[in-house]
Amino acid sequence: MPVDPARAENREDDRRTVLRTLLGGGALAGLAVSAQLGAPAAARAQALTAPQAPQTPHAPHPSQAPGAVDPFAVEKFRASGTVREYWVQADSFEHNAVPNGYDGMTGMRFTAAQTSFWAIGLRAYTPNWAAPLDPDLSPQGVGPNTGIPGPVLRAEVGDTIRVHFRNNDTHYRWPHSLHPHGVGYDRDNDGGWLADEPDRPGTAVAVGESYTYTWVCRPSSVGTWPYHDHSVPQSIPLPDGSASTHPRPDVMEIGAELGMFGIIAVTDEQTPPVDREFVLFCHDASPADVPSLAQNTNMFNGGAFVDNTPTFTAKAGERVRWRIAALGNETHVFHLHGHRWRSNEGFQGWVDSQIIAPSTTLTVEYTEDNPGDWIYHCHVTHHMMGGMVGRYRVTS
Ligand SMILES: [Cu+2]
User: How many A from CA of 330 to the centre of ligand 1?
Assistant: First the structure.
């Protein structure tokens, strides 16, 4: 039976809604207990069980609980009428992941030749790709717009995101595409290339060509999502100019390994406003795929090691949100010194480290209360040594 993508998406949304309902505190479990025990007993039971409320053993299945959402309900896209238009271009450029040549954590030094490669980044432009947009690091902004990561694509639930994408990869001259996560789209707006159907629209945009993607923001689209190149697999020739002799020389999503990715941020009326929003992309490139690199390079936003990765800043009292995404071959642990926040997924509670795997995301929120010079890093040792360390500077 063919799978209706809209229906599959609806299920995912409703699961999240159920989770949110459960997370909303002990209210749901409390209601269930009241129904079974009568009011005074229920009050005692709730007092005893309050800290473990979501684990109450006699709670009905979430889909049967009062106020819960039917996990099989079909979600409707209700258009707000707002179209968020972005002009995005893939540009190729020489990129050094360690411009200061120094790992400030271990003291090791690198030459530019060891840490440089030809990257492909995504930049936001004025209409018709006339001029790159200025950087905007505000919570509503596109970000640094340096190419790695690509611009933050922002929208509200009900909005349509329209991305006019142009391939200006004049170095590799490969076809490219944009594939989004989290939003609604049909197959002509998916961007995922398959050898089975190589001519599907929008999956292999040739150099010099353009394609317009249309994505809709359903209630299930709220949150932080990645988008990235998902076009034809390719390989970079070895330094002597020869092709790899590996039986599968071509690398899937090599465009994303070289920098073609960014974050989609979808908000609704429940999304709290913040004073600072940090966009952090975790990604890696290996000498096996990118032969000019001397070692596995583990990057935050295209940089490796402190002062090459972003230095984020905040003031005590500010509401801070990190939107974090990962792509590549590795699973990471985001750790921030001096801070804790409430996990809104997986383990429910206070955390200071959270696992993030390729194509998953984290939305970390807290009120800043700890002035000082801190670091954030991946807590996988080899990834720290590969560059995944950055600074976070909090002033009072
Ligand atoms: Cu890691």
Answer: 6
